[in-house]
Amino acid sequence: MRESFRTLLDASPGFTPIGEAGNGAEAVQLARQHQPDVVLMDVRMPVMDGIEATRKICAAPETAAIRVLILTTFDLDEYVYSALQAGASGFLVKDTTATELLTGIRLVAAGEALLAPRVTRRLIDAFTSKSKPLSGTPRGLETITEREREVLALIAGGLSNTEIAEHLHLGVGTVKTHIGRLLHKLAARDRAQLVIAAYESGLVTAQGR
Hints:
Layout: H1 2-10, H2 24-34, E1 38-42, H3 50-59, E2 67-72, H4 77-86, E3 90-93, H5 98-109, H6 117-128, H7 146-156, H8 161-168, H9 172-185, H10 191-200
Parallel strand pairs: 1-2, 2-3
């Protein structure tokens, strides 16, 4: 699979593969060494799994700016949720098309989170519906406005900025402003972390998002 991805990226303008790891520990080491814009991370790997590797990359000051994009399958609900908690910027299923993969990497490299509705709802809802209720409120949630709560709930539902704007009858620029404020107030690094905050706070649930 790594060879196929490298071949695809080598042949695509704007992409330069700079490292290839056979396990999570190697991924962390190569991330520190080469400082890539994006790491494509598998979940199940020897030595160190992709969740722990993602956590180490996103938590270390020298690699915190690197974006991690998780590759997974639909039967890995809990792993995907854990990856987002660890700092991943999103995820793709392994049978994604070449076009979807390239688009996804570009989005994540640009600072966006890759949370397609068909994946977000199925994976995160499946896991949170089995989880015990969480106590407490993420820091900063009490400071957000009612409109920001509405935007946060729609983000957790997997809606794009354009879809949120249409749903709330707002301009896209206004939606982006609300998202920027949410990121600041909730100390979230990107859209993926906003989804985590929405579910963990109980603002959005599997039964009533």
